[in-house]
Amino acid sequence: MTLPRVSVIALGGTISSAGKAGGGVTATLRAEDLVASIPQVTKVAEVSTSTFKLVAGPALTFDDLLQLRDLIVEQVRNGAQGVVVTQGTDTIEETSFFLDLTLNVDVPIVVTGAMRNPTLPGAEGAGNLYDALLVASSPEAKGMGVMVVMNDEVHLAKYVQKMHTSNLAAFKSPLLGPVGWVTEDRVTIALRPARPHPTFEVDRNEPERKVALYTVSIDDDGELLRGLKGMGYHGLVIAGTGGGHVTSKMADLIGELAKELIVVMSTRTRSGEVLRSTYSFKGGEIYLISKGVIPAKHLDPFKARILLYVMLRAGKNVEEIKRTFDEWV
Fold this sequence. Notes:
Elements: E1 5-12, E2 17-19, E3 25-27, H1 31-36, E4 46-55, H2 62-77, E5 82-86, H3 92-102, E6 109-112, H4 125-137, E7 146-150, E8 153-156, E9 161-162, E10 171-172, E11 180-183, E12 186-189, E13 211-215, E14 235-240, H5 248-260, E15 262-267, H6 285-290, E16 294-295, H7 301-313, H8 318-327
Parallel strand pairs: 1-4, 1-5, 5-6, 6-7, 13-14, 14-15, 15-16
Antiparallel strand pairs: 2-3, 7-8, 8-11, 9-10, 11-12
Helix pairs in contact: 2-3, 3-7
């Protein structure tokens, strides 16, 4: 039987970490080391390995992610029928969504990692990688967009969130739940996207775009936001309170910023859709939308920032950006 060809690309993170002199762990295990720890893989796929980075999740940059996108496209052109990316869990929800927005390939793309490093009892990295390889090898996983596989569950990149600092079950999709699971080497995809979302062409040679993220808190005056335009920012995502609100004392400032930048409103609750027509107080969503603020719909602040960044980098105008957020599913 001919096995599917799957490429494993390592970026580092906990799954690749080992102890070092002086205490603590750091990413040192390469992609071939991770695959070699799973002898069963020879029955699942013909695996090739690439070590793109050996860094912690927070060290990744947008330029890294664009290079990763290009590497994945190259691997697919060279015959890969699935791709697995391993990385630090701190930013998996952002990396996976970025790839989901910028890749246009017809093979399963899976991102995975580990909550416990290999030096700890109960380290689950090898199991997560094995499950990810099973999903990337499965015909059932085609057409799903980029997926995150952790703790025997399959999540869509556009919904998944890391919701715990250390629990093995840290990854959840609050609005949807997992779309599939892995049991006894069997991949089950129980839910499929209702329709594909748009992908965007981002040229690495085009100028960089900076998008800030700000969380609103009680009695907040927003003064930290003054001067964003002068600091080279092109967009701002606000993690507002409740249904997408700010304090009354910062409402006028947000209106001013919306004249200079593209301002998108999400919610710090990280679950639920931003409101549009319920609250009319100064700082409520009706007031803010009237000043040009764009509701992020159900996208949490981190994903809203990724989507805004990608669209700005792809040269989209404000009307195109508004329409994309409005139609997002």
